[in-house]
Amino acid sequence: MSDKPEKSDTEKTKNDLAWERLFEKYPILEEINSRGIYKISAKVINEEREARLMTKFDHSVQLPYIFQQNNLSIQPDSRGTYVIGNFESYKKLPKKKSIEIQAFPCLDDIETLKADKIYSEFSALLYAYNSGIIDDLLDQKVKFTIAGRMSTGKFSYSIRSLLHNLCHEINVDNSQCEIDGGFEGEDILAIIEVKNQNVEDFLIRQLYYPYRLWTEKTTKQVIPIFLSYSNDIFNFYIYEFEDYKNYNSISFVEQKRYQIGLDEIEFEDITSLVDIIKIKPEPEGIPFPQANVFARVVDLLIQIHGFNPRLSQEDIAINYAFKLRQAEYYADAARYLGLLQKDDNKEQGIFYSMTEKGHNIMEKTTRNRNLALVECIIEKKLFNSTFKIYLEKGGRMNKHNRDLIRQILVNEQPKLSEKTIKRRSSTVFAWIKWIMELTQPSDNRIFNR
Length: 449
What we know:
Elements (H helix, E strand, L loop, with lengths): L13 H12 L2 H8 L1 E5 H4 L5 H4 L10 H5 L3 E4 L4 E5 L4 E3 L8 E4 L16 H10 L2 H6 L4 E9 L2 E7 L6 E7 L2 E9 L3 E8 L5 E3 L1 H13 L3 E10 L2 E9 L8 E11 L6 H10 L17 H13 L3 E3 H7 L4 H13 L3 E6 L3 E6 L1 H7 L3 H13 L2 H12 L6 H14 L5 H20 L7 E3 L2
Helix pairs in contact: 9-14, 10-12, 11-12, 15-16, 15-17
């Protein structure tokens, strides 16, 4: 068992509760402890909730609570069966800094695919392909040849245990896999998995099962690639499997970043806003933000604006790789800025939708949208005061500056606990960092014509 704090039922998702009922009905933990794995069918899972909803966990944070408590994950081994165990199923993405961003021109001659209207994973992939980004990534001309669901065929692989120095063998018999995009060149086949958001890790299986399938079907080198499309930046992570029979032999090779157009924001664009901005009062009834990764606030806004006009708190948790409480934090952060509104009733639960202000901002070009979001942030007194100190101190956030911010918080709300002050300070610093990263110098970007 892990040492994670116990959740109340109100903090648990439908998946959390359904899996707990299955663990009560069947000797899942007992068999895992004695045999290392537990095999379960879709039919059994369907007793509590639809299997397709109960087994899709693209990121470790989405795993049911009882899985997290016991270091478990689940892998399909056929079209209708799954294996549960202490598997090392996920891979953390590398946190590389100062990766050069290459800019590509907009596709002005195409009316059905617009850079400012990329709301789905498939449209992100289509834009990357048609703009020439995929050719540049792979250093050769390629054709878009594969997409969709397909059968894996039969194969076996070893997967590492999280708890013991051993591997489990899983025998796959025509399980189902899905490929977001396959791109074939002269001597390569690139398999790309796409996520339309900023994420911390990914499910290796989404690359490994297609990799095993196509390694058997082609003589060309199969290259597994993970693409994270967030705030108009294409982040490609290129991998290789050093041992094709070993699930955990995945090895990071290279990261490349791309952007459509040269919609740059200069440092002066930000400072000029500070000079003219009018401070607005704190919104009533909305908590101070506890969402440190502002790019994920942007991802959420883009998706609600373009794809999901009304989302429940649980939908946000499931779709955007959040824990249930994180979903509330990030939605509330957008509410704090006046961009989302909350609807809460006993029958339907909590839902979020976009305000008119939110829609107006998200309709803008990338540059103007980001500047409008900056304005939403620094019109709040604490963020404004902090940002001015940041500018006065030459863009450095050392211990002395942090003490100044702490004093601002104490002066504003003297009854805040030290823990709350620390938490709020971390959010303020993180959002200001996001603002400053918008002004990445142009000499760190290459424009491909």
